[in-house]
Amino acid sequence: MATATAARPTARAPRRTFRPRTLVIAVCAWALAAVFLAPYLEMIVTALRPKSELRDRTYLPQHFEWANFVEVWKESTLGQNLQVSLVVAGGATLLVLLVSLPAAYCTARMRYRGRKLFLLLVLVTQMFQPTALLVGLYREFHQLDMLNSVWTLILANAAFNLAFAVWILTAYIGSIPPELEEAAMVDGTSRFGAMVKVTLPLALPGVVTTVIFTFISAWNEFVMGLTLTTEPDKQPLTVGINNFIGAYTVEWNYLFAASVVAIVPVVVLFAFIERHVVSGLTAGSVK
Questions:
Q1: Distance from C-alpha of 195 to C-alpha of 189, rounded to nearest angstrom
Q2: CA dist., res. 196 & res. 192, Å (int)
Q3: pLDDT tens-digit series, residues 210-258
Q4: Maximum Cα–Cα distance across the chain
Q5: How confident is the model at residue 91 (pLDDT cuts 50, 70, 90)?
Q6: Which tens digits make up the pLDDT trace of 16-73?
Q7: The model's pTM
Q8: Phi-psi region at 282: left, alpha or beta (left = phi > 0; alpha = psi -120 to 50)
Q9: 111, 121, 139, 206: which could join 172 in a potential S-S bond, CB 3.0 to 4.6 Å?
Q10: Sign of CA pseudo-dihedral 133, 136, 140, 146
């Protein structure tokens, strides 16, 4: 009886063995991360460097000048430029979603004559660069008396990002089985209701990809903002930062302080939608 009820040996967790390959991969990963993070670190250090130490060869300043972030707001139109960029990037993203979602849904779900030609034309428009159309855009908005307007930048940025959004959303919506919408419509839901309640939640990774691409593209846009706006307080942030570069001198501390401010909204955007980005990258990997 004692032999039958003998205590069984407890299972031990497998011991982790040291592998040189793992160490090499970790070192390479940290080295690659350091290469990509070094410019941002240099930007932050220079933004906190006093003007008297800008030409010093030391990597770190003797003392940090936090007042640079305060003075850059007082001595420039950075606040207005930041507001313009937020309105332009947000407005362009919203306009692209409002137009591309119905277009992508119709293209993915309906079969009609000229469907492939429509997709081809959408792809062709993506090949045009804004710099090649600047003269025409300037003359058009000048005749419409829409220069130095936020709406001008919203329309221009939305137009150049619309093609990519239609292609991405068409691919995502086309991968969703239409039987799910048909089941919802059998239960009494309209086609629009099925699209909103069934298709769009499943296509959320594609929507998030569109939002990220459009927002960052509109946020980083420089050439159209420089051409279509001339008043300093109505220019986007990318153009406002460029104003710290003079003909003979460059205010490096203010330039990098404004650059640090410029990356904050993008970091905040990624912090809020990071989980949707990860789900979009792994969508379809498990059946």
A1: 10
A2: 6
A3: 888 899 889 988 888 888 888 888 889 888 888 888 767 777 788 888 8
A4: 101
A5: very high
A6: 665 777 888 888 989 998 898 888 888 888 888 887 777 777 777 777 888 778 888 8
A7: 0.78
A8: alpha
A9: 206
A10: positive
Q: Which residue bears the tokens 């469907």? A: 115
Count how many residues are written for the chain. Answer: 287
Q: Is the Cβ–Cβ distance between 241 and 252 less than 8 Å?
A: no
| Tokens, residue 185 | 């419509």
Give me the sign of the Cα torsion angle 130, 163, 215, 36.
Answer: negative
**Residue 202 clears pLDDT 70, i.e. is over it:** yes
Domain boundaries, the chain: 23-65, 70-281
* Fold (CATH) for 70-281: MetI-like fold (1.10.3720)
- Mean pLDDT across the chain, nearest whole number? 80
Residue 279 to residue 272: CA distance in whole angstroms: 13
What is the arithmetic mean of pLDDT over 134-138?
85
**Two tokens at 111?**
């079969």
